[in-house]
Amino acid sequence: MSPTVNIGSSAEFSKLLSSSSVVITDFYADWCGPCKTIAPTYESLSTKYSKPGRVTFTKVNVDNQQAIAQQYGVTAMPTFLIFRSGSVIKTIRGANVSELTSSIESAIKFAGPAKPVYSSVGRTLGGNTARGTGLSRPYSYTFKKYFDGIIAFLGLYFVTLFSLDAYRAAEQSPFNVNREGEKNFNGGTKLGEKRTGASTQIGKKLGTIADLGGD
Question: C-alpha distances in angstroms, 114 versus 10, 62, 119?
Fold first, then answer.
C-alpha cells in the first residue's frame, strides 16, 4: 500500500502541514502527460522516505482542489512543493527527476531523528512492569538471609562462650544451621559424632566441678 496521501480537502492538507515536520506535495492533473511520466519516480521516493509524523508525501489534484492550488500559486503541472514546519522551502516546476530527487533527499534531513515508539522509566520496548517490581522480591529475600545469618552467629557465639566444651556445644546448638544436613553428610565427622581433638580433650579434662574436687 502506497504511503502517499491523496488530499481530499483544504482542512486535511492544513492538518498534515501542522502534524508532519516535512511535507512533499505533488500538484498534478489527470490530463497532464508529464505528471503521469514522473508519477512512478514520485511514488518510489514516497515509499523510500516516508516516515509517519516526520516526512509525508501528498498528492493534490488541481482540478478537484482548486482552492489549495490557488493558495500556493500553482499554475503549471506538475509542480512540487516541499514544506518544512508548514512553510514552503522549495518549489520544483516540471517533470525534472534529478532535481526532484535531490531536493527531497536534502529536505528529509530537516525531519530530525525518530522518536521512540515505546518507552518507560527503566524499560524500552518492553511490557508494563512497574519500576522496582522486579527487584522487590530478591531484595527482601537477601535481607532476610543476612538477618538470619547474624542471629545464628550471635546464638552460636553466646552458647560456646559459656560452655566448657565449645565444640560439642556448637554441634548441639539450635543455632547450628548444619544440623538439618546431618543425614546427607558423606564425609568428615558427622555432627554429634565423637570427636578426638584438642577441644574434646580439654572438655574431658575439665569435666565438672565435682570432678575437679575429686582430683
Answer: 28, 32, 13
Pairwise CA distance, residues 138 & 21, whole Å = 46
Q: How many CB atoms are located within 10 Å of the residue 158 CB?
A: 12
Could you say which of 35, 55, 74, 100 is catalytic?
35
Q: Is 136 a catalytic residue?
A: no
**3 state SS of 75:** coil
Query: What gap in Å lies between CA 192 and CA 171, rounded to an integer?
Result: 6
Q: How far apart are CA 76 and CA 93, in angstroms?
A: 7
Distance CA 60, CA 162 (A): 97
Query: In a structure prediction context, what are the per-residue pLDDT tens digits for the chain, which is 215 residues long?
Result: 889 999 999 999 999 999 999 999 999 999 999 999 999 999 999 999 999 999 999 999 999 999 999 999 999 999 999 999 999 999 999 999 999 999 999 999 988 765 554 444 555 455 454 444 444 455 555 667 777 777 777 776 766 666 666 666 666 666 566 655 444 444 444 444 444 444 444 444 444 444 445 55
Return the bridge partners of 22, or none.
55, 84
64 a catalytic residue: no
Catalytic residue, candidates 5, 32, 38, 169:
32
Judge contact between 104 and 25, C-beta under 8 A. no
